[in-house]
Amino acid sequence: MPFSTLGLSNEIVRAVTERGYTKPTPIQMQAIPIVLSGGDLLAGAQTGTGKTAGFTLPLLHRLSSIHSVKNVSSGFPPIRALILTPTRELAAQVEESVHDYGKYLKLKSMVMYGGVSIKPQKQRLKDRVDILVATPGRLLDHVGQGTVNLSRIEVLVLDEADRMLDMGFIHDIRRILSLLPKKRQNLLFFATFSDKLKTLATGLLNHPTTIEVARSNVTASTVAQKIYQVDRDRKRQLLAHLIRQHKWFQVLVFTRTKHGADRLVKQLAEDRIQALAIHGNKSQPARTQALAKFKNGNLQVMVATDIAARGLDISELPHVVNFDLPNVPEDYVHRIGRTGRAGAEGEAVSLVCVDEYHLLADIEKVIQQELPKEVVAGFEPNPDIKPEAIKNGRKPKGDKGKTRAIDKPSLQASPKPSPIRTPVDGKPRITHRSASGERRSSKTSKS
Ligand code: AMP
């Protein structure tokens, strides 16, 4: 089914065609007619499914076909659609999509987030903004200063609403909701459903249509997943070895803690591998700059914590490495969702030490799949090493060692595990063979 049959205007179909999309993805096929009809929507979809276009395209269509009420009051002109996202990077990415898909329309969009000067944002808000993409905290700063007009919002989108709740944004969201007109369309997107989300959705949505793209789509068959078993103190050497041996370029590496991310960047530099970290303690300009370099193919390795990398859309990302396994199994799915997207091939490698076997077993339950395990020659794990508790950035009692800072939401996130259909045994099975077979290294095109 081509895009032209969905009822979107020619200008929008032209923009997506130029972007190279030939047909809508499943979430787009389901979401677009509902949003066009003006109804509320509750949609379960991960990043990588095409969800952004799923809400952006019909939103653009509706705003451009319904004329806005003239602004009679003086002061800041009213905004017509508000898209809230949990992270700055996701906000920037969504606004880029809005801008791109709407390039043949007369609508104006703006992105707003914290960590950068508020002044230029205030200046921009004096002119017309039809679609505002924002993170909750900075939006409320503007509300406090009276520099944003939310009194005429026609459509509200909560993107990655579950993650916003995990990040503790519920009060901010409720405050923002209280400022919006009662009559409006609401679209709520989530990756993992929870009781908290149910409460939010019940209070927010008016007779919504619920749609869900199956979780199994996420660990797409285009992603080759592999576990390398290795001792905890040799992970860094193994990572450097893999990067060099396979000539990997554009590698996104996940660590559990911010401190771990910084340390790994330093260690890779000693191995002459160029890397930058993005996490919650980095300034926004540093995060933006690292991401831009990485997206443009000018940075070999980007090391990230789950929160910082959440929702990043880097097309055709060839390699994702879990330097540490995530505590929350669903985060594994989000992480590897960065690769092999929209039909491109990708590789997701996890370096797993004896401390993490139970995490691996949880992940395999959630993805209902046993992952292939290998040992790289020269990096055989020492069977005498005993598992140690993972500290997760909190200093355990009696531990005089340094506290590692973790990006907060990972600690709070405790989604319910998915139903287990295939029983898997807890212990990983190991195949002894060396890592071989070089994969292509590809340049990205920024989406
Ligand atoms: P999202 O899930 O919104 O983060 O989108 C994931 C990726 O899929 C982005 O790189 C989009 O540009 C791409 N994409 C979205 N819709 C389509 C489509 N209909 N055909 C091909 N690629 C798409």
From TrEMBL:
Describe the location of the DEAD-box RNA helicase Q domain by residue ranges. 1-29
Comp. bias (Basic and acidic residues) = 383-407
Recorded catalytic reaction(s): these are:
ATP + H2O = ADP + phosphate + H(+)
In the Enzyme Commission scheme, what number(s) does this protein have? 3.6.4.13
Q: Which residues form the Helicase ATP-binding domain?
A: 32-211
GO CC terms? cytosol
A molecular function (GO) held by this record is: RNA binding
Q: Where is this region: Disordered?
A: 378-447
Q: Which SUPFAM superfamilies match?
A: P-loop containing nucleoside triphosphate hydrolases
Q: Which residues form the Helicase C-terminal domain?
A: 222-383
The superkingdom listed in its UniProt entry is Bacteria
InterPro entries from the entry?
DEAD/DEAH_box_helicase_dom, DEAD/DEAH_RhlB, DEAD_box_RNA_helicase, Helicase_ATP-bd, Helicase_C-like, P-loop_NTPase, RNA-helicase_DEAD-box_CS, RNA_helicase_DEAD_Q_motif
EC primary class: hydrolase
> Key word Nucleotide-binding present in the record?
yes
This protein's UniProt keywords: ATP-binding, Cytoplasm, Helicase, Hydrolase, Nucleotide-binding
Chain span(s) of sequence motif Q motif = 1-29
Q: Name one Pfam family in it.
A: DEAD
TM segments? none
Q: Matching PROSITE patterns, A to Z?
A: DEAD_ATP_HELICASE (PS00039), HELICASE_ATP_BIND_1 (PS51192), HELICASE_CTER (PS51194), Q_MOTIF (PS51195)
Q: Which family does it belong to?
A: Belongs to the DEAD box helicase family.
Query: What is the name attached to this protein's record?
Result: RNA helicase
The organism of origin for this protein: Cyanomargarita calcarea GSE-NOS-MK-12-04C
